[in-house]
Each structure stands twice: as C-alpha cells, then as structure tokens.
Design brief:
300 residues; mainly alpha; Serine Threonine Protein Phosphatase 5, Tetratricopeptide repeat; 0% strand; disordered N terminus; disordered C terminus
C-alpha cells in the first residue's frame, strides 16, 4: 500500500501491502526468522547508539527525545521503546514522549496499544501527530474513509506538514476523489521537493487523471526504479477498476473518522514495552506509490 509519513503514507520500497507503502522490511514481515533478525539488528544498532551517546551525556529531556526520534528515523522502533521507558521513568510521561511511543507501537505491529495511545493524545498539543497515526492505522487496514477523516484533522492541525499532505492526497486517491487529492499532493511537492515518495504519488495522480506521458516524465526525472514504476502502474489500474464498480464517496459524511476522537482526557500512563519475542510482524507505514515509506507509515 502506499504509505502516509511523518513516519507516513508513502510508497516505500513500493508496496508490500496492497496499495500501501511499507517503511521497510517487506520481505521479512510476518516471518519469525525475519522478526528475530530485525531484533538482533536493532540490538546492535542500539548498542552503537549508546556508545555514541553515553547515558551521562543524555542529561536533559530534550536531548533524550532527540536521540529517540533519531533512532526511529533509522527504523529502530523496537529499541526506541526501551529508551522511551527509560526517558519516561526519569522525566515523567508527557505528550511528546508518548507520541514517540505510539509511533513505535504502530511500527512494531502493536496496533491496539498504538491506537489507544493516539486517541489519548488527541486532546493534547500532539493532536496532529495523533490524528496522523490514526489515519495510518486506518489506511493500513484498508479503511480509507476513516483514514481520510483522520488525515484531514491532522492537516487542519498542521497545515504545513508535507508528509501529512502527501498521505492525505493518497487516501483521497484511494477514495476515488481525484480532484480533491490534487491540491494536497502539489502542496506536498513544493514543501518536500526532494522527497521521492511525494513524486511517486504525483505520478500515480497523473496516471489516474489520464496524463500518462506526464506521469512517465515525473518518474524519469526522479529516476524511479522499474519495479516502482510497475507498482504505480498496477496501483493506478486497481484504483480505476474499483471506481468502475463502486460509487465515489464525497463530502464530510463520507469521511468516517470515529467521533470518539475527542476521548481520553485522562493523563497517559507509562506503558512498559513488551519483549520482542512477543511481537509479530514488521513495521508498516501508509504512503504513496513508490520507493519513498512505510514506508511506512498509514511507518515510518
């Protein structure tokens, strides 16, 4: 599937999931061996990270938050959960650290826990990231009506976030609402001009709009690999076929993000991470069509 990002809806490595992009580890996802290998790789990466950032140097909450965010940018979501535990034990639970926890839970396939935490965060200053995470979860489940609703809320709260705009455009294309997808996609292309995930979605948009030559030009300019181009073409065909058999839903009522979005005013509680042996699957992210995510992530 195409992946949506902040850790987003972009097509990463292009599509391990039907129409949704994955942030990485497509071949390994779902296999115990792949999960164990990833855990080993992350353990070693975390060891190297610790050597580069001795505990004594992590003397402020802001420094620790930055380190955890950097770990997640490298795909070290399992390891980041352990560091979030340590961070929250030392400095307490707050929305900024909890959104990192929710992202890590989502990317490590602990979907129910991630969704519950995102819902708690909807009443905090991190509501844009929370709505985005909920949109990625919905998109990954194939519920692009709910995904569109959440992503619209995310965009309203953070209108200049190119990744959220890109994911919103992708969700709208999946809904058959091509005219509405155009503006967020082209906003994202100017806000994130060097991001191949955005241009993969632009190429998908152009194909769906009947502008195959322009789509080809975009893919050529951005040097998208042959496999990614084939995935974009196939995704465009799938969306077009679906549109022929299903009516296009439009208007606010069509975007079915649950009203329960205003829940969870209770202070979030510290949620200890579980052992990697209990985890199943690998992280995914919603995002556009080509090697950009989650790719993840509806992901990274």
């Amino acid at each position: 599937m195409i992946y949506f990002p902040y850790r987003r809806f972009l097509v990463a490595g292009v599509a391990c999931l039907a129409g949704m992009v994955v942030l990485g580890g497509c071949a390994a996802r779902g296999s115990i061996q792949g999960m164990q290998l990833r855990a080993q790789q992350q353990t070693e990466a975390a060891r190297q990270e610790a050597a580069a950032n001795p505990v004594g140097e992590l003397d402020s909450r802001a420094t620790y938050l930055r380190m955890v965010a950097q770990m997640q940018q490298k795909g070290l979501y399992f390891a980041s959960l352990a560091h979030i535990d340590a961070l929250q034990q030392r400095w307490g639970v707050d929305p900024e650290s909890n959104v990192l926890r929710a992202d890590a839970l989502r990317q490590t396939e602990q979907t129910d826990a991630a969704k519950a935490l995102y819902l708690q965060l909807m009443s905090t200053p991190m509501r844009a990231q929370a709505a985005h995470g909920l949109g990625l979860i919905a998109g990954r489940a194939g519920d692009f009506g709910a995904a569109t609703g959440y992503l619209m809320q995310a965009n309203n709260a953070a209108p200049t976030d190119g990744g959220m705009l890109n994911d919103l455009g992708y969700a709208l294309m999946q809904r058959g609402r091509l005219a509405e997808a155009r503006v967020p996609l082209f906003k994202a292309s100017e806000l994130m001009a060097d991001n191949p995930r955005v241009w993969s979605n632009i190429a998908l948009y152009l194909m769906l709009d009947g502008q195959a030559d322009q789509a080809q030009a975009v893919m050529d300019k951005n040097q998208l690999p042959a496999a990614s181009r084939a995935q974009i073409t196939e995704l465009a065909r799938t969306i077009q076929q679906r549109q022929r058999t299903q009516p296009v839903a439009t208007g606010p009522a069509a975007d079915t993000a649950p009203a329960a979005i205003a829940v969870a005013t209770a202070r979030p509680v510290l949620q200890p991470s579980i052992g990697t042996a209990a985890l199943v699957g690998m992280p995914v992210a919603l995002t556009p069509a080509v090697a950009l995510t989650p790719t993840n992530s509806l992901s990274q």
